[in-house]
Amino acid sequence: MLRIGLDKWKRFFMQWSELGFRKEVKYWWKNTHARMEAKGCIVS
To answer: Residues 13, 7: contact at Cβ < 8 Å?
Structure first.
């Protein structure tokens, strides 16, 4: 039961990710990374 639900959810997620999800995450990550660098939290 859970297995079927997981597969369905995974398929849904894969389709959703095709609709620009990765682009959103990349954009968010770039902003977060830049902000952390500006604060001196991380060194690239």
So the answer is: no
> 44 CB contacts (<8 Å, ≥6 apart)?
33, 37
Specify whether the CB–CB gap between 42 and 35 falls below 8 A: no
Question: For the chain, which residues make up each domain, given as ranges?
Answer: 1-44
In whole angstroms, give the CA distance from residue 32 to residue 12.
27
What's the pLDDT tens digit per position in 1-44?
567 788 888 888 887 777 767 788 888 889 998 888 888 876 65
